[in-house]
Design goal:
Elements (H helix, E strand, L loop, with lengths): L4 H26 L12 H13 L4 H4 L16 E3 L3 E3 L1 H16 L5 E8 L1 H9 L3 H6 L9 E6 L9 H11 L6 E6 L2 H11 L9 H8 L6 H26 L6 H30 L5 H4 L5 H8 L6 H22 L2 E6 L13 H6 L4 H23 L5 E2 L20 H20 L2
Parallel strand pairs: 3-4, 3-5, 5-6, 6-7
Antiparallel strand pairs: 1-2
């Protein structure tokens, strides 16, 4: 018996309601934490993830971890060669140029000039505290009536001795800062370990970044193939992220989980291509200018004992740089505040909140280097103290705080940088008071 038109519409309507109900049920299920252990849904986190991936193909992700510029042009943060620290960005080079003119002309006489050195943690510290830090220091006698000028020269993924080398370069150019503030410690562990994984010496600059600088004009076809693979995968990730943003998929837990799964493929491809590229740079086929000295047999023996490869060498290089920076500043009468940054994976550094656990997407290798390296870093710091070389230990600053302060396992949110900044101000005041 033929079905009437009204009956068909009723069935279609019922089917539509059923589909809609199933979608709503799936949406609710995707928001239930117990069904997704450690993956509770947060719309703001998903939106931030999509925005960062959408920017990745145009240097935008680097801009988040470097000193800000008035126009915010992402291209200004592309890596370019630097004679002191291996690589920097056009924005940093323009800042150095402006600072060089500033000190050579004598304009600095009426300002309290702070040079900030370190990696991405230090760069973000300077960005988010750019207005707060001068306000916190305004009433200190060492500042007086002078305006506080912050020269944020921290660079993402850099580690010692690059900060030391950059300081030497600035002084050679005629800079005369009132304060040198260096915040480091994390990259000296994670980047050193990553270098070793790529076959490079741990003390070399980050091979994944330094390699492109050192091999400019000496790129073979195999390296180009790996770079092309990385770029193609990165572009696919960025295009899918931009599409997701245009469709507002982050508003839905169901769509967000589906979109994340769709993006996982090209992200994995990019990670694998990056690993192949780094391994090629550090292997025998790579230039010695990129990979540095070949490891000794003793190094291989120590690695075989279970220590995180590269971490001990990274800590030793850090200690040598600390000694040198202290001596360089002391002989010139410059105030130096050198501080260790915190890391979420450092056992006992902070009880991780649920959100911090979700957003800590650092690689297992990096997290392992932090767990094994921070105790060595603190032990080295204690040894330096016995020599009379002072370094402030900020690695346990959040040990009693349960609120969310990290945006990933390394970087902080605004409140986290504010708390760390207030501690730094105390260190600055004491440094001046004890001179």
């Amino acid at each position: 018996m033929p079905v009437g038109r009204s009956a068909r519409w009723r069935r279609l309507f019922a089917a539509g309601l059923g589909i809609l109900g199933a979608i709503l049920l799936a949406e609710v299920a995707c928001r239930i934490d117990t069904l997704f252990p450690g993956q509770a849904y947060a719309a703001s986190s998903m939106r931030g993830f999509l925005e960062s991936r959408a920017a990745a193909a145009n240097y935008g992700d680097l801009a988040n971890f470097t000193a800000s510029t008035p126009n915010g042009e992402p291209r200004a943060f592309r890596p370019v060669p630097d004679p002191w620290s291996g690589w920097t960005s056009p924005a940093q080079l323009r800042l150095v140029e402006r600072g060089t003119h500033w000190f050579r002309s004598g304009e600095h006489a009426d300002t309290y000039d702070v040079v900030l050195l370190g990696g991405s943690f230090a760069a973000q510290f300077g960005n988010l505290n750019h207005e707060r830090l001068p306000a916190w220091l305004a009433d200190h006698p060492a500042v007086g009536s002078r305006r506080v000028q912050i020269w944020n020269l921290a660079v993402a993924a850099q580690k010692q001795p690059s900060h030391l080398n950059r300081l030497n370069g600035l002084l050679g150019l005629g800079w005369k800062p009132d304060l040198v503030l260096c915040i480091d410690g994390y990259n000296e562990l994670a980047i050193s370990a990553e270098n070793v994984a790529f076959g490079a010496d741990p003390v070399q600059p980050a091979v994944a970044h330094w390699g492109a600088m050192a091999r400019a004009g000496d790129i073979d076809t195999a390296a180009l193939d790996r770079l092309v693979d990385m770029r193609m995968a990165q572009s696919r990730v960025a295009s899918r992220a931009r599409l997701g943003l245009s469709l507002d998929v982050w508003r839905s837990a169901l769509l967000s989980r589906a979109w994340s799964a769709w993006m996982a493929g090209p992200q994995a491809t990019h990670s694998a291509a990056r690993a192949r590229y780094g391994a090629g740079l550090g292997s025998g086929e790579g230039s010695i200018a990129v990979r540095g000295p070949a490891p000794l047999a003793a190094d291989a023996a120590r690695d075989a004992e279970g220590a995180t490869p590269g971490v001990a060498e990274g800590v030793a290089a850090w200690a040598e740089a600390v000694r040198s920076m202290r001596a360089i500043c002391a002989v010139r009468g410059l105030t130096l505040v050198h501080a260790i940054q915190p890391g979420l994976d450092d056992v006992g550094s902070k009880p991780a909140s649920d959100e911090e656990t979700r957003t800590n997407a650092l690689t297992p290798a990096w997290r392992a280097s932090i767990r094994s390296g921070y105790p060595l870093l603190r032990a080295s710091r204690d040894a330096l103290e016995r020599e009379g070389v002072h370094v402030h230990d900020g690695s346990r600053l959040f040990a009693d705080r349960t609120e969310t302060l990290y945006t990933d396992g390394c970087h902080l949110n605004d409140r986290g940088y504010e708390i760390y900044g207030l501690e730094v101000v105390g260190w600055i005041r004491r440094a001046h008071d004890t001179r």
